[in-house]
Design a protein that fits this description.
Layout: H1 5-31, E1 38-43, H2 47-55, E2 62-70, E3 76-77, H3 82-90, E4 94-95, E5 98-101, H4 106-113, H5 116-133, E6 137-141, H6 150-166, E7 170-176, H7 190-195, H8 200-206, E8 209-213, H9 227-240, E9 246-251, E10 254-258, E11 263-268, H10 270-279, E12 283-287, E13 292-299, E14 302-308, H11 311-324, E15 328-332
Parallel strand pairs: 1-2, 1-15, 2-4, 2-5, 5-6, 6-7, 7-8, 8-9, 9-15
Antiparallel strand pairs: 2-3, 10-11, 10-14, 12-13, 13-14
Helix pairs in contact: 5-6
């Protein structure tokens, strides 16, 4: 049967409308696809950490125990409890231990960075330990090093990363958060004493990924990580390191302030928050500009405030991972978090 011109026009518009509708649904479906990111949790042996690990394995891709360190001779010291290794294996959680410069001792790091023979000892020990325990890889967590050792640290990381990769292991580096390479942008000589040793561009090129410790905001008189500062850290980081190689640091601990005097009194985890709720009459709130939750209470006629992370604040931070197209997050540390935090982690 031959269609009349009017019917042809009707069918054309109907088909066009269907195509537009289908295309719209396709675009919507594509934009709503979840962003896949790597979830790294730092781990320190203890009762609370064990409880968190055993209760939430489905939220953990990589467990990063802070167990190992180098001594001044380059000897690798430390051991992960066998039951933790066995649990991680059963749950398909990758193990990536941290290795530190002693107890963040600058003399230990200087001794290693100044001596290529000690570096060789250290690297060989890491490879052997990783093979023996089927580790996914290692993360270098060298801290409190003077900025004058910047080039030597970079060279060591390049040498170690090449050796680890050659043997099939991941190499990553934890770096103190930077917002620029201008020393005057940091208070209390932080650039020279803490942050300046990390050459973001060089380390990013050498390692598989970089965990930016975007917490302990040096300018904050409130949260551990103010949201505007976090974005400033990420803006600078992605200008130096490919975004796909950046793991954003997330704090799971709180900062406690005397809100009357403005003095920071300490830090802690969920047990501390539970104790406050049990002991004092409290008020809770959320600051959308700072992206952090808080609880206030009075003690000895002084107002106290604790800035902490919960599902709401963590959700806001994790949204940045897809916005910046990052590698994922590195959270410090299991056992400190409130249980609600895991509802924000996909």
């Amino acid at each position: 049967m031959k269609l009349k011109p009017k019917n042809k026009i009707k069918i054309f518009f109907i088909l066009t409308a269907i195509l537009i509708l289908v295309a719209g649904f396709s675009v919507k479906a594509a934009t709503n696809e979840p962003y896949d990111y790597l979830r790294i949790f730092y781990y320190r042996e203890g009762k609370m950490a064990r409880e968190s690990l055993f209760a939430n394995p489905e939220h953990i891709d990589v467990l990063a125990p802070q167990i190992y360190s180098f001594n001044a001779s380059g000897k690798l010291v430390g051991k992960i409890n066998p039951d933790i290794l066995e649990f991680a294996k059963k749950q398909n959680i990758k193990i990536m231990p941290l290795v530190t410069n002693g107890n963040f001792n600058k003399n230990t790091s200087h001794a290693i960075l100044d001596d290529s023979a000690k570096q060789a000892v250290a690297i060989e020990a890491m490879i052997n330990e990783a093979k023996q325990n089927n580790y996914w890889g290692w993360q270098f967590d060298f801290e409190q090093i003077d900025a004058s050792y910047r080039d030597k640290f970079s060279a060591f990381i390049k040498k170690a990363s090449d050796a680890l990769k050659k043997n099939g292991f991941i190499a990553s580096v934890a770096v103190v958060a930077q917002t620029s390479e201008n020393p005057s942008d940091y208070p209390n000589d932080i650039w020279k004493k803490v942050a300046g040793v990390y050459d973001y561009q060089f380390l990013g090129a050498s390692a598989d990924f970089i965990s930016v410790m975007s917490y302990d905001d040096p300018w904050s008189i409130g949260p551990v990580t103010r949201y505007p500062w976090l974005k400033k850290v990420l803006d600078y980081s992605v200008s130096q390191i490919p975004a796909s190689k950046i793991s954003m640091g997330i704090p799971l601990y709180y900062w406690h302030w005397n809100d009357t005097t403005g003095v920071r009194l300490g830090s802690g985890g969920r047990q501390g928050i539970y104790n406050i709720f049990k002991k004092y009459k409290t008020s809770i709130g959320y600051n959308p500009e700072l992206g952090a939750s808080f609880v206030t209470y009075w003690k000895n006629a002084k107002r106290h405030i604790i800035w902490y992370e919960n599902a709401k604040s963590i959700t806001k931070k994790i949204e940045l991972i897809s916005q910046y197209k990052l590698h994922g997050f590195s959270a410090w540390a299991l056992g400190l978090e409130l249980p609600s935090v895991f509802s924000a982690i996909k």
